[in-house]
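SAMPLE LOG
Freezer: B-3
Tube label: C17
Construct: single chain, 89 aa
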Amino acid sequence: MTTKRRSVGILILAFILGALLGTLLGELLGMVLPPGVVRELFLRSVSLSFGPTTLNLLILNLTLGFAFRLNFSGVIGLGVAYYLLRYFR
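STRUCTURE (predicted):
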């Protein structure tokens, strides 16, 4: 019996795509749904950001920053990505 192992890059890419598609779906549902509790659930998000940090090299200014925002449907997208990765071995 052989086990097929996935690379870490494929796993990270799958989870990022799952979160991205889930968050996009949540934002679209938030635009369509009428104001209320359900809409607020889909639009509420958690943010994590670093930066911006500026590096000045006299002839070049480089500004780096990172922001990560995930909402409820993005978490569902992560769960779907995990399920699909387990299902399609």
